[in-house]
Amino acid sequence: MDGVNVLTQDVVIPGDSYRYQFGVPDAGTYWYHSHYLSYDQVSRGLFGAFIVEEQNAPAVDHDIVVQFFDVLLDQSGQYDEGFNPAHFATEGRIGNTVTALVSNGTSKNVRQGDRLRLRLINPSIDRVYRVGLDGLAGKIVALDGMPLAQPQTLEPILLAPGQRCDVIGDATGPIRFDDSFGERTLSLGEIAVSGSREPAKAPITALPANRMPAPQDPGQTAELVLQGGAGSASHNGTGTWALNDVSGLPRTPFLSVAQGTTARISIRNETGFPHVMHLHGHHFWELDAAGEAGPYRDSTYLDTGETRDILVVLDNPGSWMLHCHMLSHQADGMATWIRVG
Ligand SMILES: [Cu+2]
After folding, report:
1. Residues with CB under 5 A from ligand 1 (ion)
2. What's the CA gap between 320 and 177, in Å, rounded?
3. How many angstroms does the Cα of residue 249 sit away from the middle of ligand 1?
4. Are residues 324 and 266 part of one domain?
C-alpha cells in the first residue's frame, strides 16, 4: 500500500479510484505524495502531511505542521512548465520561490511562552534545507517520525527531501524559520506571536517510544554505490544516475531476503552531488563510524564522497523501493528495490 506503480500497484488513472487500507502502528510525523512521475506531480503540489497521534501525546499548546516547499515559477508567477534535462543530472529542479507552509489556524493565537510542537516536513522534490529556528527554546524529539531516545539540542536541522523532524519548545518571540544550506541564508517564513504567558515549567522529555524491532547480527551485508550524474561515465540502463552500475529500476532486486533478516548496508556516494536514500516499508538505524546505532529513520542524507552504513531489520514482507528522494534523481535512474519474504 505504498503507491509504487510497477512494484506494488498500478497507477490510478484519471477518473479511476483506489482504496488504500493499512495499519498505522507507529505514531509520528509522516507524509504522503504521488509516487508516479513524482518529480512532476509532487512539484505541482500532490502531497500532504500524515500525522499519527500518540496514545499519550505530550502536553503542548499548539501542534503545528510546517512544510518547506519550493517551486519554480516563470516570469508571470505561474508554474514553470519548462523542462531542462540538465536539472535531472545535477542538483535537481530547484525552485526559485521557497515557502514555509504552516498548517491550520492554531498558529494565529501563539503567545510568547506557549509550548509548541512543530512537525517539520520537507516535501520539496530536490531542495535540501538547513533549517534554523529563531524564537523557540526547545529540543529535537523525533526524526522521520520516530522518537529520539534522548531529545537533542535544538540546532539548525538538515532536512533533505522526504525527511521530517519534530521539535518541542517554548516560544520566546516570533518563530522565524531560515535556511542556511546554500551560500546565502534564506528567510522561509514565520509564526507570529501575540500576547504572552508564563512559560511551561515542565521539562521537555522523550516522546513515547514506538515499537522497535530487535536487530540480530547481520545475516546479510551489502554495498550500495551511488554513481552517475552530469559528466560521469554512463551505466547500464536508461538514466543518468545509477546504483551499483544499473540505472533505473532493475528487474531483479538489490537484495532478496527472508522476512526478519537483519541487513547491514553500506551506502557510498561516489557522485559529485548529495543524495538522500529512502527505503520503503521500514525504518533503519544510521550507524556511525564506530558502528554504533544512531537515529532510527527512513531517509539518510549522504554528502558528496560520504559513506554511511545502515542497519535494518527487514521484517515487512513485500517489494520495497530503495531510492534517492531527490525526485529528479529517482526519475533519472536512482532507484532499486528489496524483496522481503
Ligand atoms: Cu539523489
Report:
1. 275, 324, 326, 329
2. 34
3. 14
4. yes
